[in-house]
## 1
Amino acid sequence: MIKTMIVFGTRPEAIKMAPLIKELQNDSNFDVRVCVTAQHRQMLDQVLEIFDIKPDYDLNIMKHNQSLYSVTADVILKFEEVLKKEKPDIVLVHGDTTTTFASALSAFYYRTKIGHVEAGLRTFNKYSPFPEEMNRKLTAALCDVHFAPTKRAKLNLLKEGIKEEDIFVTGNTVIDTLKYTVQKDYKFREPILNRIDYTKKVITLTAHRRENFGKPLENIFEAVANLADQFDDVLFVYPVHLNPNVRDAAERILRNHPRIILIDPVDVDDMHNLIARSYLVLTDSGGLQEEAPSLGKPVVVLRDTTERPEAVLANTVKVAGTDKHNIVDVVKRLLTDEEEYSKMAHAINPYGDGFASRRIKDALLYYFGYRKEKPEEFKGSDLYV
Ligand code: UD1
Ligand code: UDP
């Protein structure tokens, strides 16, 4: 059996690791252990509950308004204890958070194999997003096997000197998750979401990037308030991230507007079904840039760069940056120009076909010599390089 230690700490990692955990647990070739760092506490627990995941180890590191230093140090030290106890054949990390990098570094010091899920995303700008661009680059340098969601991600890794035989193009596991969560007659857990009039143009908003704290975040919120003032057929729904840097600014600028609904973070099935009922999505999130295009919803990205250019190439995502006037102009156009809107509102799936977890499992079986043929790659992203 392949003793596999899956480690993650934040909401998006959990959402994207959940289908892979299920896939590996259902295969008798794998002995699966789950370790959560709990870099996020409440937002992680929300996901664990929905997918009924019971971690074998919970490092419980979250502190109020924590620093990158404390997260990094705590993960490295506490994960060492888990590694010593479990002696896994392979550690699987996900994406680009500080949990990702620090747990990969800890696993490297322990000299165990490491696999990187969602490998190869790049903006080529060290500080955007910060610290994620360096987290994922450094993680790639530490890993032995790389599960690239798209062809473009694979090409990025090849350029950094990663060997082709160690890269598998699998699609993104978030599309596997969407298959479970999105339903036609869905009833929301959050009662406010059941009371919304979806014949209005509902705009789902999220924002939490560190490089946007301060003025850029204020610009974003002022643009939203301005749009809500101008359009009375529009309703903004904003599940506010628990980071205090985000919450304080959101409360100050957006609370008490009749067309802006601020709510706490919602469960992932609520979120996916909310996107499915929205007119468009405004976000600086990574995951939403993958989910919304799959659901046929245009995305306006509130950042200067994106590591997910596939949907920009397919014209369902526009990068608006954090300039207040620019955000207002881009969103206004999508609210008033039907032709422009319908050009962007088509479902595309450059990020996956719902079988990424199975491909990752097959790749692991191949890597450890349990199967002879290299698994077929995900081809749906080949046009977007
Ligand atoms: C982290 C990741 C980011 C990812 C994001 C997903 C890093 C450096 N950042 O950013 O890449 O996109 O998660 O959401 O790895 N908090 C709570 N409860 C929670 C979660 C957060 O109270 O469940 C508050 C705490 O005060 C915490 C703060 O938010 O200290 C910041 O959390 P942290 O994980 O450091 O940063 P995020 O902005 O969440
Ligand atoms: N999400 C959620 N509840 C919310 C807001 C977001 O479940 O209230 C989901 C969202 O659908 C996506 C993921 O969380 O799957 C994105 O997480 P986040 O934006 O925090 O991180 P990023 O993707 O930017 O790393």
Note: Residues 42 and 242 are 9 Å apart (CA to CA).
## 2
Amino acid sequence: MRIFSKTLSNPRRLLFCLCAGLLLSWFTLKGTGLHANLDLLCQLHRILSTEADLLSQHNSTGTNSHLSHLKDVKLPRILYTKSDVFNPQRTDVLTVTPWLAPIVWHGTFNRHILNTQFHQIDVRVGLTVFAIKKYTRFLNTFIESAEKFFMVGHKVNYYVFTDRVNEIPNFTFAKGRRLVVLEVPAYERWQDVTMRRMEMIRDFSIKRFVKEVDYLACVDVDMVFLDEVGVEILSNVFGALHPGFFEKSRNEFTYERRPQSSAYIPVELGDFYFAGGYFGGVIEEVIKLTNYCHNAMMADKQQNIEALWQDESYLNRYFLSHKPTKILSPEYIWNNYYGSPAVVKTKRFLGIDKIYDEVRF
Ligand code: 48C
């Protein structure tokens, strides 16, 4: 009785018995020699039992031995509307470049899915900002608004480069977030202050940031966060479309046009015009970008050349030959000087109007 119930419970054995029964009756009907069909049955049994052995091996180790190193990825269950292949979220703007880099606009991504993915890897994000000389006055608004909108719920290190360490306000940070003050020299000319950011970001990335964070975002300080800026910006190397040029053609871009300069871009080249106050990526890529830009600036300095828009010109030159893997829409670096076009659904990060002469000397 036990053997019978064992057979019923074991699908393989049951299958074998069924086949054997069928074969036996078939050959009996057909009158073929008994030993011939016995031989066939033995073959069938060998096949089934080999497979059964394989299966039992699998079951006894739980997984195939060569797959056992794969970690079980447990993605929490998230409910969201399915994307519609024939009905893209945005049809009013370009959402991918010819080299297949996404262009991030409101409505083109699900932040919940992205947060889940980046929490899976426990991502650590660094945000660099320079507050040299009178620009320390922008820090309070910058940090307070970043606490509300920048990478909320993730680990963030604010890296504040300044010559005035005693002017850095005290802040209270949410869990997993902190501010690191990095004392650096102040250059005389504002052009040098802004351009030397590349060198300082490179040097600190090599000696410190590479050990502390996975991604870096490098931005201007005279700004305020007004809406969420989250992990949707993260990619190997990213830039942001300048609010003043995203609607213009390439010959209107204010690239450096002198062939003698390392930042030179001829009128027939160029993809987009990127804002100097917003770039980033994984540390290795940020080191490559800042190193390139710094070396290009130093080469020009040797020839007494300074590109038209300082570090922004060199950044645009870099992105021509080292295409960004993700591009942020002007939502991510806006200035009200350019009004409120309909395609910009939200101004996430906004320039603070200042009287230049008052803060720049
Ligand atoms: O920190 C300073 N101090 C200065 O005297 C001049 C520039 N800067 C830094 O460079 C700030 O972080 C500025 O945001 C950045 C240059 N960008 C601007 O001044 C406008 N956002 C274009």
Note: Residues 130-133, 135, 190, 193-194, 220-222, 277, 360 surround 5'-(D-alanylamino)-5'-deoxyuridine (CB under 6 Å).
## 3
Amino acid sequence: MARSRLPLIAGNWKMNGLRADALALARGVADGVRLAGWKDREVLICPPATLLIAVAEAVAGSGVLCGGQNCHVGASGAHTGEISAEMLSDSGASHVIVGHSERRADCGETDAIVRAKAEAAWRAGLLPIVCIGETLAEREAGRTLGVLEAQLKGSVPTGATSAKLVVAYEPVWAIGTGKTPTVAEVAAAHAHIREVLTGLASDAGALRVLYGGSVKGSNAGELLSADNVDGALVGGASLKADEFLAIAKAA
Ligand code: 13P
């Protein structure tokens, strides 16, 4: 891992957590991060939007960052049930995940929508984490690198820089399955992502590219050691403070 890029360990809680358990989890992560006193990595948690304010308050002063899991493209208006990037920011978020494969699949989010959401994040002063990743069928058809390239070109807005964007590579078939690519496969995907980013960001060499998909304490060290991997986007394992902290420790 290039030390010029500050590793980011991000927890995506997805649609999990009611107030009591979520606050206990947030406090557990905050206590661990406070104790570790890391200056050489960032730790982010992305709770459901309903818990963002309470979680942000619970981790205040610990160094743990908070993010949203999605945002609307607009700032406000007649969009029942939607949440804007401005609202996330107002609730204590500094980051927002956009284009997660679950939203691309469940909500029909296209590259163009993801791109608009990343721009909405910028408008609100949030750092977007743009997710990309191939399906199993695409991998088996030998299309992985082409799919990643197309998603990047469609999803990354003009004007991207390392300070304004994080990319997360999450193979769809590795999410929640316990399956992961080999370290060599991760490195190949990340090398290609960085090459494509060279045409999309003015300082692509400094832009962080996270790996996500069945990351846990026991495999984090290996996966995070792959070239061009600058941290992890963690789902299931981010729901246990000890497990998530073990991943952060491995970074
Ligand atoms: P898992 O870590 O549960 O595989 O989920 C990864 C993910 O989708 C994070 O955004």
Note: The domain at 8-250 is CATH 3.20.20.70 (TIM Barrel).
## 4
Amino acid sequence: MSDTFDPTIAAFDPEIAALLASENRRQRDKLRMIPSENYASKAVQEACGSALNNKYSEGYPRKRYYEGQQFVDPIEELARDRIKALFGVEHANVQPYSGSPANLAVFFAFAKPGDTVMGLGLPHGGHLTHGWSVSITGAWFKSVPYSVRRDDHRVDLDEVRSLARTHRPKLIFCGGTAYPRTWDWAAFAEIAREVGALLVADIAHISGLVAAGVHPSPVGFADVITSTTHKTLRGPRGGMILTGSAHAAAVDKAVFPGLQGGPHVANIAGLAVAAREAAQPAFKVYARDVVDNAKALGEALVARGFDLVSGGTDNHLLLVDLTRKNISGKRAARALDQAGIELNYNTVPYDPRKPFDPSGVRLGTPAITTRGLKVADMAEVARWFDSAITHADDSDRLDAIAAEVAGHLRAFPAPGLVLEG
Ligand code: DSN
């Protein structure tokens, strides 16, 4: 056997090992507030880094195209069963590589190129794969995006109904990536039924909140539910599609062999672990804290004169419109990153600026809540945020805030990080 593969990463590839160590420290020392990110547990990461990375398993449990599935089959079955129990659904496909392939599989299962689809427009908080023009879903399908209202930034259900009646879409997507408010699944279901559309709820951002019961569930309203598994749900990178049994066969066929080859079974094992974690009482406490922290942070930012899209939040994320602060989203995001607060610049509804340098920043509380930060810490987070924006051009000041942030975080160990010393 070649000994090339035996040494540890530190011995064999010190360059990559050093970068990985730096990333671990970065994740330890920063307030990670990108709302789609989190810290997966050590147990989830162990599954993802396991020998399952060596295995091909095209097909589904008991119906594979490769041998050697003695342990993969029960792992995928456990993942499916735990997800079904967690969300209360009849069928779960846990093979999508992530959220975008999960959505593409739904297109493949239930629509044909040229069919009309509706989704919340990207600049209003939707996702690329809900039919936005630059995505394959906008290029190959006739997309009719809906919006949020100018005055309160809530989804305009009157517009959704009117567009649906006019355009008779095949699919209506609800869910988004920068929408801080609760989704009215029942209202969407009523519109979809009226026009004969299939309702797809993309709960990628909020699946952990839905699993814990702190955001209403689309089960019983949406025909198909898609999600990533690594955001508020806190699992490995991956995707899933949940349905009733009526749509199970179409979804499974669309995922494999329709869209994907061999599933990433190590991540499916990670998802099984994450689903077990999400069924524990402690997960409900985490999910409630995610929302409470986001609300408290929103209030603290408003008290400091920041404008929040929709005025606040019902979930895990906040969208801050910086127009009145005379700083662009990109400049603010860079300054905040230097100050130890990691988030992303983002368009706000009806943004006059371009997406590459928009008017807002998007931030959320899942990762910092996983570390144990509570409502009482949010005033301090708002103070650092405010100070970094106010002193965006003062490099020394930003470094000083970063040191304060890292000092504060020492009391909140980050799960799953490998840290030497
Ligand atoms: N990139 C994800 C997010 O940050 O919301 C969506 O795909």
Note: Residues 36, 99, 127, 177 surround D-serine (CB under 6 Å).
